[in-house]
Amino acid sequence: FPVTIEVMNEGYWGVMKAVMNALPNVKFYAYSKRVSFFKSRNDMPSNFTVVFSFGGMEDGLIDQNVDRHAKVFSTRKALRASGYSDGTHTDRLAANPKFKTIGLTIHGNHLKLHKLRKIAQKLNA
User: Fold this and answer.
1) What is the reported pTM?
2) Nearest CA among 83, 89, 92, 11 for reference residue 51
3) For 91-106, how does the pLDDT look when each residue is reduced to its tens digit (9 = 90+)?
4) N or C: which end of the chain has fewer CB within 10 A?
5) Measured between alpha carbons, how far is 116 from 122 in angstroms, rounded to an integer?
6) Within 10 Å of residue 52's Cβ, how many Cβ atoms?
7) pLDDT tens column, 54-78
8) How far apart are CA 51 and CA 2, in angstroms?
9) Measuring CA to CA, which residue among 99, 92, 105 is closest to residue 69?
10) Which of 41, 70, 40 is nearest to 54 (CA)?
């Protein structure tokens, strides 16, 4: 069962954890940019896995050699060249802890927004 986590606090985590513990035969996963929150946990349910997403303020806390993580690529060609597993059209990779590096491609309006952000980053550098 996918969970999107951008806003995370102890109360929200407590509710999520209660649901996961109540459904031990269901596998839960989340993509999250809240690296420090999850790395500080010692109460992760065994049926939950997190995939850290690059593109947030805590990217420096992601150990690419150890942590499950995802990167967004502008093209499938770039994704394939990176050696990441392509999770663009399926959540199966995120749900399966054996996949450590998951690549996703931008599409449609998200690609336009990505290009605008890159331009803004260059202008602000």
Assistant:
1) 0.76
2) 92
3) 889 989 899 999 999 8
4) C
5) 10
6) 24
7) 988 999 999 999 999 999 998 889 9
8) 11
9) 99
10) 70
Are the CB atoms for 39 and 61 separated by under 8 Å?
yes
As a whole number of angstroms, the distance between CA 87 and CA 82 comes to 13
d(CA 75, CA 100): 20
Token readout for 20 is 């996961």
**C-alpha of 77 from chain center:** 20
- Look up residue 27 and give its two tokens: 């596998």
- Residue 42 corresponds to which tokens in the numbers above? 């010692």
* Distance between CA atoms of residues 93 and 36, nearest Å: 23
DSSP strand E in 28-100: where? Answer: 28-32, 48-53, 69-73, 85-86
